[in-house]
Amino acid sequence: MNILISNDDGVFAPGILAAKQAVEDLANVCVVAPDENNSSVGRRITLFKHLKLNSCNLEDGSSAFSVSGSPADAVIVGAKYVMDEKPDLVITGINQGVNISCDITSSGTVCAAFEAVSLGIPAIAVSLFVDPKTSYKQDENGEWYIDYDFTLTKKVLHDLVLRIINEGFPEGVDLYNLNVPSNYESEEVEITHLSPKMLDKQVIDNTDEEKAELFSYPLDGNNESDGLVMITSDLVKQYEKGSDGYALFVEKRPSLTPLNVNMTSNHYFE
Questions:
Q1: Which among 242, 130, 131, 240 has a CA at the least distance from the CA of 190?
Q2: CA 243 – CA 239 distance, rounded (Å)
Q3: Number of structural domains in the chain
Q4: pLDDT 10s per residue in the chain (270 long)?
Q5: What does the buried/exposed string (b/e) look like for 122-159 if buried means 16 or more CB atoms within 10 Å of the residue's CB?
Q6: 124 in the same domain as 21
Q7: What's the CA gap between 137 and 160, in Å, rounded?
Q8: Cβ(180)–Cβ(128) under 8 Å?
Q9: Contacts of range 152-156, beta carbons closer than 8 Å, 24 or more positions apart
Q10: In terms of domains, do 223 and 131 share one?
Q11: Do 103 and 205 share a structural domain?
């Protein structure tokens, strides 16, 4: 099996190395990813513009490629240019964050997997939800850092890919969206459906005294404007049982959501 691995956090993000390590004993692995962070760019594609493709080495010394474009760009370049043969599977991640609910269409991680499906390649999008209450730690000098513990995520991803090798994808499933909590209470994976939404969004401006620090940085360039606004968000706190959010945040266990990229509603054809 040939596997292409990409992400939206950038080629040097620790999650992409963890994804490679999770499956490198199962397949031939090629890593092609954006040269910098491209979170929340959705399925943006760069058409008829030059992209820089550079070879590089991951932290373990293995070879990879960086692309000066979006996650979807990286998947296209990797599958149709870098790899000698069309990959049998695309893995995007391991994303350092959470990608659940119908909000996944803004995710660079998940939409890179969507792009793989459009190329005729099944895919897995993988994310690690880092709980700030348990994952922010201090070193011996008192400096704070984030402990990205990919142990369970790597195990679940490895077992899923092994099952795909042996059984293939179920009929009607184009890709899997896998989310694993860092503060898990159960290692058992639950098959889930998408929650209605993940983020409660609002718009604030620079008159908001409570969040004034968000506007403390200078504007890019010298463009004049009538004011400053910013879209902010908070995670939804209530999820129904059986949903990806319920498994992840309430049951604190891995959530696996099977997806089909054909968004046509069958209601009008019944």
A1: 242
A2: 7
A3: 2
A4: 999 999 999 999 999 999 999 999 999 999 999 999 999 999 999 999 999 999 999 999 999 999 999 999 999 999 999 999 999 999 999 999 999 999 999 999 999 999 999 999 999 999 999 987 776 676 777 777 777 899 999 999 999 999 999 999 999 999 999 999 999 999 999 999 999 999 999 888 867 666 666 666 555 555 555 667 888 888 899 999 999 999 999 999 999 999 999 988 887 776
A5: bbbbbbbbbeeeebeeeeeeeeeeeebbbebbbebbbe
A6: yes
A7: 30
A8: yes
A9: 152/180, 152/184, 152/187, 152/254, 153/18, 153/22, 153/94, 153/126, 153/128, 153/178, 153/180, 153/254, 154/18, 154/19, 154/21, 154/22, 154/94, 155/22, 155/187, 156/180, 156/187, 156/189, 156/254, 156/256
A10: no
A11: no
Q: Which amino acid does the sequence have at 29?
A: V
Claim to verify: residue 248 and residue 230 sit in the same structural domain: no
Q: For the residues of 170-219, what is the DSSP string, one character each?
A: PTT--EEEEEEETT-S----EE-B--S-SEEEEEEETT-GGGGGGG-SPP
209 in the same domain as 107: no
Cβ(64)–Cβ(24) under 8 Å?
A: no
Q: List the structure tokens of 21.
A: 């390590």
SS3 34: strand
Residue 54 belongs to what H/E stretch?
strand 53-57
Q: Which amino acid is at 116?
A: A
